[in-house]
Amino acid sequence: MFEFIFKVINFVVLFFLLYKFMKKPLVNAVKERHSLLKRSLEEAREAKEQWEAKYREYDERLKRVEEEAQRIRQEIIAEAERERARIMKEAEEAAERIKRQAQLAVEQEVKAIERRLREEMADLTVQLAEKLIRDSIVPEDQHRLIDDYVQGIRRFH
Amino acid sequence: MRRVARRYAKALLKIGQEDGNLERYGEELALFNNYMQAEEKLREALVNPTIHSSQREAVIRELAPRLGLSEVMVRFLVLLVERNRMDVLPEIVEVYREFLDDAMGRVRGVLYVPFELPEEKLQEIVKGLEEKVGKKVILRVELDPSIIGGAVAKIGGVVYDGSVKAQLRRLRENLAKG
């Protein structure tokens, strides 16, 4: 019984001593541990926030780049479309011009041929008329022509 | 040459206007010029500046009575000899005639006809042309069968073409025009 009481007293004393001398370092160690954990958590949170901010920033930039790329792509498409339309218009105009010139050349050639034919016909007609007149003219005609000349003098300009 | 001829012709014209011998001087000029052109030796002597002018003057004075030249004409020809301008005489004749025609209110021209015209027809044409130009007309008639019929008058640079040939030409132009 005494031994039991002694063990209890021994335990109490040991507990008291441990409490007396170990309490502060233990509390300090726990506190330190706690603050370390807290700081680590804080740092992790800050790192997370920074990373998230960076992520958002990169995300924004990526979006802007994509938008820019989209805009440039549309501009290139629009420009290509305009260029295509311009080339088509020029090609159509050139084709029209060539067609018109060819048509004009043909018309001129036709006109030249018509003129040449008319001139040849006129030459032949006049040659024939001259021959007929020369063959058939008689002195009476000559006198009549002179009378006509006299009558017509005042009509000359 | 033409300018020199004009100067001498004008001087002679002035004298002619003053003494009333315009026509006579024109005739004498033409007569002497024809004679000189026909006689080659005479022409060569009169235009030769190495022959003394007094000798050339003597030739003119010797010819004058034979050609019936007036004293004014003799002096005019002597002046040409003295100034070595006898080579311009053909032009002087021509210009003097133009001045004379102008002074007398007449013009000269050529009439082309395809056959010999009776005098009365020619006079009708002259009368018609005189009415047209408002001056007396002197025509030289030339036969030109190529005009076929009608007549063509050329007076002072103006052509009055009433020939069959001209009508055929117009016909050809109209036919060619279409």
Q: Can you characterise this structure?
A:
The complex is a heterodimer of chains A (157) and B (178). Chain A has 157 residues and is mostly helical. Chain A is 95% helix and 0% strand. Chain A has one domain (2-150). Chain A has helices at residues 2-136, 139-152. The longest helix of chain A is centred in the middle third of the chain and has 135 residues, at 2-136. A four-stranded mixed sheet of chain B has the order 2-1-3-4, sandwiched between helices. Chain B folds into two domains: 2-102, N-terminal domain of the delta subunit of the F1F0-ATP synthase (Peroxidase, domain 1, Orthogonal Bundle), CATH 1.10.520.20; 106-177, no CATH class. In chain B, helix 1 crosses helix 2, helix 1 (2-19) packs across helix 6 and helix 4 (53-67) runs antiparallel to helix 5 (71-82). Classes of the chains: A mainly alpha (157), B alpha+beta (178). The A-B interface holds A 114-115, 118-119, 121-123, 125-126, 129-130, 133-134, 137, 139, 141-143, 145-146, 148-150, 152-154, 156 and B 113-115, 117, 121, 124-125, 128-129, 131-132, 148-151, 160, 162, 164, 168-169, 171-173, 175-178.
